[in-house]
Amino acid sequence: MRRAADTPRGTAASPKSGGARTRAVEVRRSSRRRRTVSAYREGDRTVVLIPARMSEAEEQRWVTVMLDKLAAQESKRMLGDGDLAERAGRLSGQFLGGRAHPASVRWVTNQNTRWGSCTPAEGSIRLSHRLQGMPEYVIDYVLLHELAHLLVPGHGPEFWRLLESYPRTERARGYLEGVVAADRLPHLPAARRE
C-alpha cells in the first residue's frame, strides 16, 4: 500500500531482464526519504523509491542503477551450469543463426583475469564466477562472445561482425571495463556517514 507521502512520478517502459518483453517502471518520490533509493518488483512492473528532492537526471541515473541491481540479483539466484547451457543455446539461435554448439558451458572459480574462455577444439566454454550477480545483459554478452569463438577463434573483423547483432555489446563492454577500472582503484576506507 502506498503511503500518502509517496507520490508516483510516472511510468516508463524498460527492458525486462533477460527477455524481449518490457516491464513498466514506476518512480515514487517520497519527502520522508532523505538518502536511500530502493526498488522492487511488483507484478509486471518495477517500483523505484527515491527522495523527493532528486533532480530528473539523478532520477534517471538511479532508475538505471536499480534496474541493473535487480537484474543482477535475479541472475545470481537463477543461473546454474544447466541454465548456462540452455542460455547458450538460446543466444546462439538468436544471434548466431544457431551455428555455435558448445559441448559444455559452466561456471569456474579459477579465472580471475578473464571473464570467460573457450576451447574451440573441445567446444567448451567457461565463465568466471565473478560474473555471477552482474546484470543479465553482461552475462549474455560474455557468453555470446565465447560462443562466437566456437565459430571464429581470434578477435579479427569477422569475429566482431558476429557480435554486431547483439544490441547491448557496447554497454556490456563498458560495464566490464568499469568493473576492471574500479578493481584497480586503491581501496580506501569508506567515508564516515554523518
Specify Rg, calculated over alpha carbons.
19 Å
* Biggest sheet: strand arrangement: 1-2-4-3
Total separate domains: 2
- The CATH superfamily of the largest domain bears the name Metalloproteases ("zincins"), catalytic domain
Could you say what the CATH topology of the largest domain is called? Zincin-like
Pfam families: YgjP-like
Organism: Streptomyces gilvosporeus
Keywords: Hydrolase
Protein name: Metal-dependent hydrolase
Give a quick summary of the entry:
The chain has 194 residues and is α/β, with parallel strands linked by helices. It is built from five helices and seven strands; from the N terminus they run ββββααβββααα.
Explain what you see.
- The model is unreliable at 1-9 and 11-21 (pLDDT under 50).
- The protein starts with 5 loop residues before the first strand and ends in a 10-residue tail after the last helix.
- By secondary structure, the protein is α/β, with parallel strands linked by helices.
- It contains five helices and seven strands.
- It has two domains: 6-77, no CATH class; 81-182, Zincin-like, CATH 3.30.2010.10.
- Strands 1-2-4-3 form a four-stranded mixed sheet, with helices on one face. Strands 5-7-6 form a three-stranded mixed sheet.
Strands, helices and their partners?
Layout: E1 6-15, E2 22-30, E3 38-42, E4 45-51, H1 56-78, H2 81-95, E5 104-108, E6 116-119, E7 124-128, H3 136-151, H4 157-163, H5 169-184
Parallel strand pairs: 2-4, 5-7
Antiparallel strand pairs: 1-2, 3-4, 6-7
